[in-house]
Amino acid sequence: MHSGTFERMAKKAARFTGRPLCFGLAVGVVLTWVISGPLFGFSDTWQLVINTGTTILTFLMVFLIQNTQNRDTDALQIKLDELIRVTELAHNTLLDLEELDEKTLDRYRAHYSAMAHKARRKGQVEDLPEP
């Protein structure tokens, strides 16, 4: 699967699964399963259906959550770097970094890393306060 396609799908899925509607749908599925228990005699197959379904969804959600967390963390770090660098006005273009693709985030990260490296080489490190 292409990286850009995965990112778009992951964003849409994360937005959907984080809404009350999705939670309501999940509760509805579980209630339907519980109510159908007597119809299927609480059989092993009946139990296997919910066990298999929840296992698969949990497995997929782990990857979705990790992708979302990585993107949010990267974007937050870059925003913090910008706020440290600029004391009066931040660049408004950095306000929605979490919406950018990985390549763009990598370019921003490289830009700020280079700035920090250059400042350290010039000795522009302020004295740290005593603890």
Question: Could you explain the architecture of this structure?
Answer:
By secondary structure, the protein is mostly helical. The protein has one domain. The chain has helices spanning 3-17, 20-36, 44-85, 102-121. Helix 1 packs across helix 3 (44-85) and helix 3 runs parallel beside helix 4. The longest helix has 42 residues, at 44-85. It is elongated. The N and C termini lie far apart (50 Å). The model has no long low-confidence stretch (mean pLDDT 86).
Largest sheet: none
The proportion of residues forming helix, as a percent range, comes to over 70%
How many structural domains?
1
What is the CA-atom radius of gyration, in angstroms?
A: 23 Å
Instruction: Return the structural class.
Output: mainly alpha
- The N- to C-terminal Cα distance equals 50 Å
Mean pLDDT: 86
The DSSP helix count reads 4
Poorly predicted runs are: none
Defining traits:
single chain, 131 residues, mainly alpha, 4 helices
Summarize this entry quickly:
It contains four helices and no strands. By secondary structure, the protein is mainly alpha-helical.
